[in-house]
Amino acid sequence: MSYWLLKSEPDVYSFDQLLAEGETVWNGVRNNAARLHLRAMNVGDEALFYHSNIGKEAVGLCRISREAYPDPTDESGQWVAVSVQPIRKLARPVTLAAMKAEPALAEFQLIRQSRLSVVPVRDDEWTTILRMAG
DNA sequence: GCCAACGTTGGC
DNA sequence: GCCAACGTTGGC
Q: What is the value of pTM for the model shown?
């Protein structure tokens, strides 16, 4: 099983909306590195739901419920989407500032490459972040 | 194939 | 609102 982090601007789509809906299509990714990550996802993989721009914190956990398929919002057929379901909110959100201050996350790609919207999370990084979330 | 110009993302 | 990082486009 692999771990990931998915970014969303909460005024566009928030974790609360995902909790309310039960499942969503993670579409609109138009970056090649992010596409490779989407393609590498398996059903059952877990992901942190991160609020970018507003909040700048990981707020919840979700699960990949359907592996990569053609993005319904992409007419060219080149881009892919996955489906995700919520698992639970984090007891305490983990802010970007807190992650930057954590030595164990020095190599975390969220920090290293801030523009990437789909980020792989190593096992040890996952453990660290969940511990920070209480 | 190189590189300047430009657009987008996202933190500050 | 600004800027850094990065990706893409297009002229040569």
A: 0.95
